[in-house]
Amino acid sequence: MPSDQHIEREVLRLKSAVEELTLLNELALAASISLDVNQVLDTIVQKSVKAVRAEQGSIMLVTPQQESPLKTLIRKEDFSGAMPGYRVGTHISGWVLKNKQPLIIEDLAKDERFNVSAKEAGDIRTVLCVPIMIRGQLIGVLIMTNKKTGEPFTQNDLRLLSIIAAQSGQLIHNSELQQEAIEKKRLEHQLEMAKEIQHDLVPKSDPQNDFLEIASFFQPADAVGGDYFDYFDLGENKLGVVIADVSGHGPRAALVMTMIKGILHSITHNYYSAEKTLEEINAIVSAIIPADIFVTMQLLVFDLSDHTLSIANAGHNPVLYYVNKYKKCRLVEIRGCALNILADCQYSSEKIALSSGDYILVYTDGINEACNRNEEMFRISGLVKAIEKNEHTSARKIIEYIRMELKDFTGDMPQADDMILIAVKVK
Q1: What distance in Å separates the CA atoms of residue 319 and residue 311, rounded to the nearest whole number?
Q2: Is the pLDDT of residue 302 over 70?
């Protein structure tokens, strides 16, 4: 029969095993409840401090960096007792990072491996450090200091903390993956909101009158941009057409364009001239939008009474003007810096007398810079050919023809930028 001592040892062994399993189950359960990495780290430290009966515990996560071999990302600490919290020197945690091995220090003041200050030797008596690994890669260090009993940490403490560290690596990794998924979903939601903002900016229909036939095409790219167009009744039988492009992509560009739309709708109620309108909007946006953002814009004002067109330009693509009399296209290039480059920029305009059969085409650079598999761009020349081949068709058919030409040209290449195209035919 087993002796009483043997039975007692077996009972203690089983009790220890049950305590270890309970601890690991509690750790896994507590970590699974939270999706936040910081809370998972807190849980790991708290459970570790309790398991090895330490006065204080901390966890440090590391990641490779170009400028240095290792860089601390985050550190979580937990301590009990009346003493203030203290930190293990970087030379101690650095030893574990370098050697990727557990470390027990029985008496820090007497350990010749580490040159510590008097304060460190007074605050810290004994230390237990274990590396946290995931798939063979070191991701952090779990550190316990000063056993509450006053004794050094034992090999059993080392074994238990190593088990916790092994499980913690997977818990931290899973938590980071979950947090990345949440962040991705949040960004996707922001992108959808930005797309809705951008879609709401553009008019739902094109104006029509006895003098002009107008058709438009707007196709946003997957990444939200800042392309925008609009129509304005400027009074005195004048129709304004604006096309613009905010630098950059994403919600930031879409929000800036929302501001631009609001400003335009405000100042065009007191329209004076195309160039003065650009000067006024430039002065306003230069005072309120970030300096690293610029906006290209083109304003076309059709006078339905005297059949003329005034064009002012702020760094946007040249207007394509098909002159029916000569059966040729010409580029109307008017100099003018983009909005928010110079606060007091002066703009000019060009006035054109329109005749029946003339075409006006305005567009954003998503059209002329669309690329095919050979990285060749569609270019303005592609638009010129489209107009000259369809001189007798309607504005809507010109738009549809250019869309087909673009599709044939780009093939299966993804659309890199928003596309806006406005065709105006003089009746």
Answers
A1: 9
A2: yes
